Amino acid sequence: MGMNDIKAAFTYSVPVLLGYMAIGIAFGLLLVDAGYPWWLSLVMSIVMYAGAGQFIAVGLFAAGVGLAEAALVQLVVNARHIAYGLSMLKRFNRTGPFKYYLIFALTDETFALLSSLPDQEKRGRFLFLVALLDQSYWVLGSVIGAMAGSLLPFTLDGIGFALSALFVVLMIEQILRVRKAQVFIIAALAAVLTVFVLPARLSLLSAMVIALVAVQLISMKK
User: Fold this and answer.
1) How many angstroms separate the CA atoms of 163 and 206, rounded?
2) 119-144 pLDDT, tens per residue?
3) For residue 107, what is the DSSP state?
4) With contact defined as beta carbons under 8 Å apart, do 26 and 143 qualify?
5) Shortest CA distance to 88 belongs to which of 106, 69, 109?
6) 3-class state of residue 202 by DSSP
7) What pTM did the predictor assign?
8) Are 194 and 202 in contact (CB under 8 A)?
9) What is the domain partition of the chain in residue ranges?
10) Could you give the count of Cα atoms lying within 13 Å of 148 in the half-sphere of its Cβ?
């Protein structure tokens, strides 16, 4: 892997760098504030690497939730990745030895980047570099936050909004890049519909399914 590839992947992943550093720091601060050692942020960010799932895990740990219940909650929260994986299946099958890491590292933000890559950048090596850089940003941010939280007192009011803020930034970035407003309008309408009609635990996954089906149907008609 040449320096040009690394430089190109870094440039492409800068939006995630800015978001993951901030949110990773927030996660690290919350983890140590809940009474856990700083090094657990490193272990979780390398082995678990689940973003919102890690935030939820801290709350579950602190509440003393059992392993089976915690696993069920994480399954529901991360069920949206089924849709991500299915949409990237063909692309990942062409990535050779990078395939399994790409499956593991397919977070919301990495999916947003990889799914909108121009054709000339869809080779496995470039996908791998983007995914690896994204995880390195998350790991670095979470460790910085945990170590800072262990050494310095922080007020954590409102810090949980950091994850939502990153999703908003990435959505704006994709709107400017893709320039296909109907996809985002369909997704927004599906989200609003499911929030008002379905229970909270089902709304996210249902909205994704509805949006994906609607977009596919519109694409088939063109």
Assistant:
1) 21
2) 555 688 899 999 999 999 999 999 99
3) -
4) no
5) 106
6) helix
7) 0.71
8) yes
9) 3-178, 180-222
10) 17
